Task: inverse folding
């Protein structure tokens, strides 16, 4: 795996940055229920966003993290991050900048990308809502991009069988939905983040989708629409997305297990 530190050159702090991570953290977290914006909610007493920033900064490859805050919350997020040290000596040299986000994840990523210096060749996009991704997964994504893949996603095989349905809408909403197909499970993968990209490819994908005005649920999906190949590397169970209340229970359990195992 490529794990050379990237420090020394011409980022905002005067260092060359070859690999940057954009963390979209501007979502409300509606599915998690009422409360503060999801990225700011605590896990073991530390905001989810801080865990996510540490996960990126923990990679020797990542020397810049761009946090995309709620549109009116950039100053609050900056103050919050200043109150938490990045763990580890390598993390201490990672630069963190904060920019305001947008109405959709796609718009937030585009705004974060605009803050990435042109010296950067590899960009990771990582959900704040996946705070516990292990550093080995981050490194594997970076290594695959540096080895020449323009777009890389970590992913896992599915545990459940998946059905395609004909969704009921309008007056029929809530009625049982007819099944119209069963995709072959062995061919499917559940996709996580960080997704890693050659910078020019990701910029081109966001420009194309912004022009077309179409939505996409992940960045790799936009790259696919450019006709550029996206490849998959193994994801990790602990890179799950905190989406619903039960996910918070799982996240706390993972952190408790880490503390028990290695004094994290
Ligand atoms: N306008 C938005 C919407 C989402 N995100 C980010 O995109 C990631 C993945 O989104 P998701 O898990 O769906 O978060 P929310 O949009 O906050 O969740 P919900 O749909 O339940 O409101 C999160 O880190 C979220 O903060 C963002 O930066 N800007
Ligand atoms: C990017 C992502 O995490 C990949 O699985 C996912 O698509 C985000 O989706 P959401 O609708 O924003 O939760």
Result:
């Amino acid at each position: 795996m490529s794990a050379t530190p990237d420090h020394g050159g011409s980022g905002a702090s005067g260092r060359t940055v070859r690999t940057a991570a954009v963390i979209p953290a501007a979502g409300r977290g509606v599915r998690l229920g009422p409360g503060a914006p999801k990225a700011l909610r605590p896990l073991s007493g530390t905001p989810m966003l801080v865990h996510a920033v540490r996960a990126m900064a923990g990679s020797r490859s990542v020397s810049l993290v761009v946090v995309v805050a709620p549109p009116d919350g950039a100053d609050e997020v900056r103050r919050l991050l200043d109150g938490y040290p990045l763990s580890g000596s390598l993390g201490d040299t990672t630069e963190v900048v904060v920019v305001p986000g947008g109405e959709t994840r796609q718009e937030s990523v585009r705004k974060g990308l605009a803050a990435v210096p042109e010296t950067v060749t590899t960009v990771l996009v990582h959900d704040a809502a996946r705070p516990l991704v292990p550093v080995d997964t981050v490194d594997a994504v970076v290594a695959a991009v540096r080895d020449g893949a323009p777009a890389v996603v970590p992913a896992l095989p599915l545990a459940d069988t998946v059905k395609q349905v004909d969704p009921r809408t309008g007056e029929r909403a809530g009625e049982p939905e007819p099944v119209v197909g069963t995709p072959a499970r062995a061919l499917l993968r559940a996709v996580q983040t960080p997704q890693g990209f050659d910078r020019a490819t990701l910029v081109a994908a966001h420009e194309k989708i912004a022009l077309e005005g179409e939505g996409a649920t992940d960045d790799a999906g936009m790259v696919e629409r450019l006709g550029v190949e996206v490849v998959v590397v193994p994801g990790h169970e602990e890179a799950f997305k905190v989406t619903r209340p039960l996910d918070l229970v799982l996240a706390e359990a993972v952190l408790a297990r880490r503390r028990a195992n290695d004094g994290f």
